[in-house]
Amino acid sequence: MEIGTGKSYAKIILIGEHAVVYGEPAIALPVKSIGLSARVAPLPDGRQEVTSAFFTGDLNAGQLTNFAGIAMLIRRLLVFFDASKQGFHLTITSALPSERGMGSSAATAVAVVRAFYDAFQTPLTRTALLNWADISEKALHGNPSGLDAATASAEKPQWFVRGKSLRSIMMPRNGVLLIADTGIAGQTKVAVDLVAQKLKQAPKVYRPLITDIGTAVRQAALALAQDDIITLGQLLNRDQSDLAALGVSSPELDRLINVAIDHGAYGAKLTGSGMGGCMIALAAEDQAPTIIQALKAANAVKVWEYHFETK
Ligand code: MEV
């Protein structure tokens, strides 16, 4: 084993979360200005330790919920490399807030897998990377679509259909996406389980919402192809009302979403699993400063600006 490194990015789901779990498409963006890196270095005395912004400890003693999936992933990686007794220190350095819908668990898995493959000097395909990330994502969320890891490992915005399609998609030539954090933790497993429960209990009520989200995502792809940011904004609003009807919005998210719309955003919605976490607002460049100020005044704990890459 050599020293190995790996990186990944925060992800923002532009449109299609939750429905993506049930086979509908989604569009998501890697946010390269918010990154995560992993560095693994061999230890001669056999200790296996992980330190990071989210969890610290001995690989075999990790009990925190977030840590369990990553610990399992690392154990399986070591078996794969025939190095179960190998001592190492893994450091994870992250600019991503945890449990805010920005994909911190998937980004951690992606960077960790890349770091171990680098340490064992083994080429890694994208498919293998996503299969590995699925191990810890499953442990944490139960039924992950794979969208988070696919986006955290990408360099460009992605069109994603579970198990079927993963490709880059063009973004608008102008406009800006504002990302605002409610400061409230939102756990993906809780939100995904809630939607599953509702679909089971009242499929006639909730299934059409899933289908409508899928339709909105397909229309959003068309709006993107036509560089029609106004229609895109309207589709984000439609997606938000479907997500709210599914029960995964929250008063804090609704408040920030309404503030963004009231201050001129084309559209706004929660991003990620919801029930807390972050919202996004699509806005004209010259409107952005007013909206940012209003979001901060409405108690957003942090606001990021995401400028679309057009190449
Ligand atoms: C979570 O970031 C996105 C969800 O659609 C779950 C998933 O795709 O696995 C809510």
UniProtKB/TrEMBL annotation:
Domain named GHMP kinase N-terminal is located at 80-152
Q: Does the keyword Cytoplasm apply?
A: yes
Q: Which GO terms describe its molecular function?
A: mevalonate kinase activity
E.C. code? 2.7.1.36
- Keyword annotations of the record: ATP-binding, Cytoplasm, Kinase, Lipid biosynthesis, Lipid metabolism, Magnesium, Nucleotide-binding, Transferase
Q: In which pathway does it act?
A: Isoprenoid biosynthesis; isopentenyl diphosphate biosynthesis via mevalonate pathway; isopentenyl diphosphate from (R)-mevalonate: step 1/3
Question: Does the keyword field hold Metal-binding?
Answer: no
Start and end residues of each GHMP kinase C-terminal domain: 223-298
Superkingdom of this entry's organism?
A: Bacteria
Q: Which residues form the signal peptide?
A: none
Leading EC class: transferase
List, alphabetically, the InterPro entries matched: GHMP_kinase_C_dom, GHMP_kinase_C_sf, GHMP_kinase_N_dom, Mev_gal_kin, Ribosomal_Su5_D2-typ_SF, Ribsml_uS5_D2-typ_fold_subgr
* Name of the protein in its database record: Mevalonate kinase
Which species does the entry assign this protein to?
Lacticaseibacillus huelsenbergensis
